[in-house]
Design brief:
This protein is mainly beta. It contains 3 helices and 26 strands.
């Protein structure tokens, strides 16, 4: 039975399985934090404006000696410079000079890795005391349209609580490595970081499906979309090896403007008797996501890469794709297994590469 896990801004389509290890994410006033199954964690200070044009990202791995990486990402067009200041000018840790930042996957989002400039301890100490970080943009001479917005604020309300939660998830409390609640315990007092699950990907497959799919197979695939979805049709067929094929069926009735749903079926050489729906089973529990049984074998915006035998899905919270859920599933010859899960429940302009990871496996 397909289950829909409802987040504040999206529905993530998955099937649950017996949890192997937990992952979690949580909001703390104006901050969001998340940790994956390996205790790698990320915390975000979000833009105070609903649409979002800047954010602070604090990342730390789950190993005892993992460094802290703090990045500032700002919307700034070519030629625009910006400054970052704590509301209290006496607080240290932010660059004094005007910044341009490095281009990201979105050319207008510029990144400054603050921990390349100052120490993480200095920044964290100031974050604990500040009320906000103010980003002020300056247009180059001759720019016709003024930058909008000229000023952005990142609230520090919730920062301490989110970083304390990260310390707790990573088992750092009362150790010398803690971000917030430091103690005298050595880093060696932390338990070892969990090892990732290893997935052995199937070899890229060759083979052609029957030129004309069997009507009974088509009927089974269309049924995945529901009896009322009369517009459902076979879209693509991919070889999986062992004479097995992946069949994808459009589900137009349940699709929207930017989330396109597909029913996925696996069968041996077009034989309807062997047809089975693809099961997308998360191998862990993620936070307190609520379940609502409704669908089976439905994937959102799927893309299959036959070279890596990887199926990627992307459920968007809104059209520009700055929130939602992103997954990677590896075919191991028998099933698609979850290799990577990212969830960003806040539509605040966060780049996909920066979304927090909730689950990761090792590919071989």
């Amino acid at each position: 039975m397909k289950r829909i896990f409802v987040l504040p801004v999206l529905a993530v389509l998955v099937v649950t399985a017996a949890p192997a290890s937990a992952a979690d994410f949580k909001d703390f006033r104006d901050w969001h934090a998340a940790c994956d199954n390996l205790r790698n964690c990320t915390a975000f200070g979000l833009d105070s404006v609903v649409t979002g044009s800047t954010y602070l990202r604090i990342e730390r791995g789950g190993a005892p000696d993992a460094p802290v990486k703090i990045s500032l990402v700002v919307w700034a067009e070519d030629g625009v410079t910006f400054t970052a200041r704590f509301n209290d000018a006496s607080l240290a840790g932010l660059p004094d000079n005007a910044l341009t930042g490095a281009k990201s996957e979105d050319d207008s989002m510029r990144r400054v890795v603050l921990t390349d400039i100052v120490s993480a301890d200095t920044l964290i100490a100031s974050i604990r005391k500040a009320e906000k970080i103010v980003i002020t943009r300056k247009d180059p001479p001759g720019k016709k349209e003024p930058t909008d917005p000229p000023v952005s604020d990142i609230s520090m309300s919730g920062a301490v609580a989110s970083l304390l939660w990260v310390d707790e998830q990573q088992k750092r409390l009362d150790t010398v490595t803690a971000l917030i609640r430091k103690g005298n315990k050595p880093a060696s007092a932390m338990p070892p970081q969990p090892k990732p699950t290893v997935i052995v990907a199937a070899r890229p497959a060759a083979g052609k499906p029957p030129a004309k799919p069997v009507p009974a197979l088509i009927a089974k695939g269309r049924a995945l979309c529901g009896e009322e979805d009369e517009g459902s049709k076979l879209e693509d067929t991919w070889p999986l090896g062992g004479n097995q094929f992946l069949y994808t069926f459009t589900c137009p009735d349940s699709s929207g403007a930017y989330n396109y749903h597909y029913g996925l079926l696996i069968a041996t050489a077009g034989n309807p008797a062997t047809a089975r729906p693809v099961k997308f089973g998360w191998p862990l529990k993620v936070g307190d996501l609520q379940e609502d049984p409704s669908r089976d074998a439905i994937s959102t915006n799927p893309v299959f890469d036959p070279k890596t035998m990887t199926l990627s899905t992307f459920s968007k919270g809104r059209g520009i794709g700055d929130c939602g859920a992103s997954e990677e599933w590896i075919w191991d010859g028998k099933a698609f297994r979850l290799a990577l899960l990212k969830i960003m429940p806040h539509c605040k302009g966060i780049l996909l590469d920066d979304w927090p990871v909730l689950y990761r496996a090792e590919r071989k």
